[in-house]
Amino acid sequence: KQEVTQIPAALSVPEGENLVLNCSFTDSAIYNLQWFRQDPGKGLTSLLLIQSSQREQTSGRLNASLDKSSGRSTLYIAASQPGDSATYLCAVRSNSGYSTLTFGKGTMLLVSP
Amino acid sequence: GAGVSQSPSNKVTEKGKDVELRCDPISGHTALYWYRQSLGQGLEFLIYFQGNSAPDKSGLPSDRFSAERTGGSVSTLTIQRTQQEDSAVYLCASSLLSTGNTIYFGEGSWLTVV
Question: In whole angstroms, what is the distance from residue B107 CA to residue B114 CA?
Fold first, then answer.
């Protein structure tokens, strides 16, 4: 059974810092990995999708990497802003069964001005 | 539509009553998913639809929970005889057919059972 772990559970940084969020998964047989953002009281917003054959994806100040063999992904946020404050969720789509997403519990990020 | 639409956005119901939650996926998306998010918990998979069929119902927590999808579009999640532990946010998501595609979520239906 796939298990996804996110470290740290919470992170507080001053505005302007670069930061890294970590995600690890136990079964490397995956189709892809997706990073989401969730604001309080809201649904999930997709940030980046990395296919199993890819090493990284970039969107603006966000860069996500994937090392499938070691079961790890990182989300790098450059020059953090207060508007980046949210919970960041990592989800893995396994290639066994019907390939639904398995989520980590998220990293709660607070960027202070 | 432009995004995944869910209704109601908030629902307060009395213990023992039945509730129906509706999901309208992005137009053209054949895959539809229901997840549940309880306070302080991660997202829990409930059920997956491909078209109108549900090949994976493994996440439904009890026989009080059921879901259907008609016309390959709108889906309804029904909870019968609600219990307080059913209080959670119920999130719907959709994607194109291929497993390589991005999954898009709705804003969720916040259910409180009193």
Answer: 22
| Tens-level pLDDT at each residue, chain A (113 residues) | 899 999 999 999 999 999 999 999 999 999 899 999 999 888 899 999 999 999 999 999 999 999 999 999 999 999 999 999 999 999 998 877 666 789 999 999 999 99
CB contact under 8 A, A43 and B106: yes
Contact A97 B56 (CB under 8 A): yes
Specify whether the CB–CB gap between A35 and A92 falls below 8 A: no
Q: C-alpha distances in angstroms, B67 versus A76, B30, B50, B64, B84?
A: 38, 16, 13, 10, 20
Mutate to test the interface with A, among B29, B103, B111 (most CBs of A within 10 A): B103
CB contact under 8 A, A101 and B42: no
Cα first-last separation, chain B: 33
Q: How far is A17 from chain B (nearest CA, A)?
A: 27
AA letter at A14? P
Burial of B64 (0-12, 13-18, 19+ CB in 10 A): middle
Judge whether B76 and B67 are in contact, CB under 8 Å. Answer: yes
Burial A101-110 (b: 16+ CB within 10 A, else e): bbbbbbbbbe
| Rounded-to-integer distance, Cα B11 and Cα A102, Å | 26
Each as own residue / partner, the long-range contacts of residues A50-53 (CB below 8 Å, 24 or more positions apart, any chain) are A51/B100, A52/A95
